[in-house]
User: Fold this.
Amino acid sequence: LVPGALLELMYIQKNDQDQSAAINTTGATLTPWSGSGVTGSGNTIIHDISARIDGKVPGLEALDYTLEGHGQFGDIGDKDKEAWAFAGRAGYTLKNVMWTPRIGVEYNYASGDDDPTDGDDETFDNLYPTNHWQGNYGFIDVVGWRNMQGFRGNVKVNPTKKLMVQVDYWKFLLAEEEDAWYFANGNRGFAAADRGEDDLGQEVDLTVSYQLYKNVGILAGYSVFLPGDYIEEYLGSVGGGSRDDFDTTWGYLQTTVTF
Assistant:
């Protein structure tokens, strides 16, 4: 239907009839790292209607793009589900330049709940998150696709046919200050509270891959997360913490052998 692109139309249903699993976010006060919410009552039924388009601009093959949108409705225990999310990215590959660099930009949004005390749950549900698989929202996994805005810029180069180097920069903000901060797995980071701040922080990811042999590949990465004013404000309110308490680094090396 769209020249040069793949269009996917989706319907996803999340149906959990274990009543103790329903999440009710009403006015809860949580300690740090305590999990995914407060137990409510009633079933969880979420209907997700979404579309995704992925392709290249006709006549300009160097420009690629991906757009994805979701709308959700249903019931979360005794609350009505009303949430949405959007993700869009674009990249331009300089094919006639040394190392064929690709320069990319991205914006992600997932709705939050601006009033946790009313009868609506407006926090987008990331359903069954696999953010880490492709480095969505960074590799450190401290931000998930719930109540967030994510801004990304990246550069990827291929110095040789076997070597790829990519650098990503992320800036994260809350979508709604009245809602909580959520990790990549969907769990809450800190309790929902309006602290007058929406700056979660920024992250830089370095990824290097090398095809050592036809069936042996090596992947290495290093990431740094620097907390923003929202996290700093929370840490300062629970015992005199500071920004340095949450500076986070992450590194890894892995090898893949294909038989």
Remarks:
- The radius of gyration is 20 Å.
- The CA atoms of residues 111 and 147 lie 5 Å apart.
- The longest helix spans residues 229-237.
- Helices lie at 229-237.
